[in-house]
Amino acid sequence: MTTTTRKRRSLLAAHIADKTVLANGVQMPWFGLGVWRVQEGNEVVDAVKAALRNGYRSIDTAAVYGNEEGVGQAIRESGVDRNELFVTTKVWNADQGYDSTLQAFEESRRKLGLDMIDLYLIHWPVKGKYKETWRALEKLYKDGAVRAIGVSNFHVHHLKDVMDGAEIKPMVDQVEFHPMLAQPELRAFSKENGIQLEAWSPLMQGRLDNPVLLELAGKHGKSPAQIVLRWDLQHGVVTIPKSIQEHRIRENADIFNFELSAADMEAIDALNRNERIGADPDNFNF
């Protein structure tokens, strides 16, 4: 391996334990487990334990997922030191507003059974409420109840609006991000403003039967899912694929022993169609 290659690889996530550094200096794993639509009880407990057994150290949940208690139980039963873990949860739309956000946070903290939340996010940009919600997140951060604060599903104009008059800039924006929705404008704005982008639904809910992805999978001896997750990381985007099956959880994490070339990255970039699987943050009704 040449010096140039070594230097280039050192800039990329090369191990499941590798972390990005947020604007406030907090370290956040590049890779984690998302638990959207994972049922409370044994299903989420088993999935989180499986992830932790296989080296994952970041778990992403939300109040509306209804599984915070199971996530907390799995963490306690896993035997993994709490200081090694990075736990994210989110305030739901119905709880937005200053006082109600503070109350919702305490409920999430109680259900998780954690004194400290690593990252707390505004789940969606609810019109007329998200700036007051952000003010509550700033208080939680200043009070030391959370290590980092951010947003989810915010477009550039939402970020600009919430930053206008804010004391603290969002440290993370968790958004729908995948080859069909590559978000170049948002990526550029986030990089310019020191906001870490994070991908939800990185695997397009299994819609991976694409000739380009299949060709690259064959080239690298990987699955199309592994190609997409590697593409995320090489774009500097934190990724949190969901699975409840241990073999899939293990497979999703097997992406640190290869690298996509510049040509590979460009081929995947060219798949962008600005097509969403989820709701548009400018037009949602939940």
Offer a concise description of the structure.
With 286 residues, this protein is α/β, with parallel strands linked by helices.
What do you see in this structure?
- The chain has one domain: NADP-dependent oxidoreductase domain (TIM Barrel), CATH 3.20.20.
- It contains 11 helices and 10 strands.
- The protein has helices at 3-10, 42-53, 68-78, 98-112, 130-142, 156-163, 184-192, 211-220, 224-234, 246-252, 262-269; strands at residues 19-21, 27-29, 33-34, 58-60, 86-91, 117-122, 146-152, 172-176, 196-200, 238-239.
- It is globular, with a radius of gyration of 18 Å.
- It starts with a helix and ends in a 17-residue tail after the last helix.
Strand and helix map with partners:
Layout: H1 3-10, E1 19-21, E2 27-29, E3 33-34, H2 42-53, E4 58-60, H3 68-78, E5 86-91, H4 98-112, E6 117-122, H5 130-142, E7 146-152, H6 156-163, E8 172-176, H7 184-192, E9 196-200, H8 211-220, H9 224-234, E10 238-239, H10 246-252, H11 262-269
Parallel strand pairs: 3-4, 4-5, 5-6, 6-7, 7-8, 8-9, 9-10
Antiparallel strand pairs: 1-2
Helix pairs in contact: 2-3, 3-4, 4-5, 8-9
Low-confidence segments, ≥5 residues, pLDDT <50? 1-10
CATH topology: TIM Barrel
Order of secondary-structure elements: HEEEHEHEHEHEHEHEHHEHH
What share of residues are in beta strands? 5-15%
Rg measurement, Å: 18 Å
The average pLDDT score comes to 95
Which tags fit this structure?
11 helices; 10 strands; TIM Barrel; 286 residues; alpha/beta; globular; two-stranded antiparallel ribbon; NADP; Aldo/keto reductase
